[in-house]
Specification:
alpha/beta, globular, 7 helices, disordered C terminus, homotetramer
């Protein structure tokens, strides 16, 4: 590699969403993947179909780096836009690793599996952004709290571009907080 | 043991709910534990405090059998009303085992952890009953679906007694279905 | 239940061994299950075939209580001598729960899966007894240490009866240690 | 990124070994990390100290890419030579993910944790190379089988250079096998 990995990338963003999606959700996930890669973020996800495939495809369009945390033993189960497949053959427990691999979580629609990932993101203290105008749990929880343990909320965003703005805000706040506290880089 | 274990008990019911609860929720959890044990159900839960402790305490009041699926290595982390402690030191992934240990799931209130358990119950096809008049996710989802993958819903129940009625209905339906299909006992 | 569960049983013993075994190993596993149940121990195991099935069958012969920690979602995957099936659908990670469910571990033969369980038993500080005259890893490691982190060893036992003697020694030592330290019962 | 990720790297090699090591083992792990990176392999490991830190340090010396599968929630627990930290807070079950993240496994010394990883590598069908002249389980099992399920063995290698030769042999065989069978690239 002719570059410094840690300087090249600004962080890892985990994208969560359903494995079966409509055309509109697919386009938004693709566009978000594209924007994340263009802005030097690594994309992490569950590595399978639907939102996971669309966001990886978008990221690769901009020569980004993609990680797929798959719930099977064989790396070949990952979609073809995944660069690094990490097998976690622990059924739904793989959702926890998807969440923890990210510095920030972005939800696009989603069913019960995505809702479980929103819960883990909330419990583990990860900043969360939820696309607010697609069908599924990201819309239902955008702008809300899951319970009273945190002062912040699941931040709403209406477009992939909005997600990027919110993401920069979050990471800037996080950096400021850290440099005020301890000079530790993220 | 001077009895036939499989004849003695009618099934295992997993109770999910928060680790910090108010007096009213505690009383309902205790009463449910008592009724479950009296009616020959084994109680399974996360084995710690709050709803988990109250339901185990109720079950032991009636000399029932209690299982605690705890997220720590040491069995001693379980509350004192747990008969059989099963350590699953996998952080939030232990929630999956709590759900799968039960034949039916009953939710009493609950925060993000309980909501993740409701998601897993839904994904793994477990019948779910939710107490509808306590604070938390069980009230918010009682009578609803988490997504469109199932024809049934999260059944609402307003009291521990109601839970027992609903529980008997569910297990009767399940038995009928099975005996129609294959004569396989549950 | 017309008995006090915690008084009825002296502890949980996890039995580890291969899923495909010869007649001799099967007979020893069956005999060990019988002796454990007769002496008021609960049997825990991986819940499938081979050593797991034989030890459960033996325990049920004496009306003992059996726990099967199975690597599948469906409880019906457990062998028919399992009373309480706990699904841990996390591939080989279920081996960790098999080990942690026991107060003492007994190995009978075994291949790579059993060897991984011996490693976990060693790491988690569980007392281990290994049958020394059956084919497999229990014979190869009987009387040895896996590494230098512990002062004790994998205790060898040549027959199921020997296992019971060693087991009583271990639990007596453990009780004495505890009562000297803190009066806490196990 | 100004390169094609999948063309840039030849595969992911998981390195397993103890967290506390002597100077000689450290030097060998460092040298292996260096050689792997120089030869366009990604290094994966448990992300902590000892062999894990030395191999990552060596890889970064040659501007390689390193993955750390850590058993804690916080990415900051990884050693400073880890580029991509994947938290798997599932106690010893994280060892399974370390193994499955690699296309080939290389063991350097090791205690009970490493032995459990050798078992999983064997069970999941991963090619294994073991350094034969360092203290620990890699020496004890080099040139041997863990059980009879596989036709191959744990390949012995006496130096990091030897590991590289063996590694190339294994991956060439694997490629040939695949191109004969199905033209599917790895």
């Amino acid at each position: 590699m002719n570059f410094d990995f840690k300087k090249e990338f600004k962080g890892i963003i985990s994208i969560i969403g359903a494995s079966e999606i409509d055309k509109e959700t697919e386009e938004k996930a693709f566009e978000l993947g594209r924007l994340l890669a263009k802005n030097k973020y690594i994309v992490s996800c569950g590595g399978l179909t639907g939102v996971m495939e669309a966001v990886c495809k978008g990221a690769k369009e901009e020569k980004g780096l993609t990680i797929g945390i798959i719930p099977y033993r064989e790396k070949s189960a990952a979609n073809k836009y995944v660069d690094i497949a990490i097998p976690v053959p622990f059924s739904q427990a793989r959702n926890i690793v998807v969440v923890l691999s990210g510095d920030v979580i972005v939800a696009i629609g989603g069913k019960a599996g995505t809702l479980s990932e929103l819960c883990f993101s909330w419990i583990y203290g990860k900043p969360i952004i939820a696309l607010s105008n697609v069908e599924g749990w990201s819309s239902q929880l955008a702008g809300k709290k899951i319970d009273d343990r945190r002062d912040d909320m699941i931040y709403p965003a209406s477009t992939p571009k909005d997600v990027m703005i919110k993401l920069n805000d979050i990471l800037q706040d996080k950096n400021n907080e850290l440099s005020n506290k301890s000079n530790t880089p993220i």
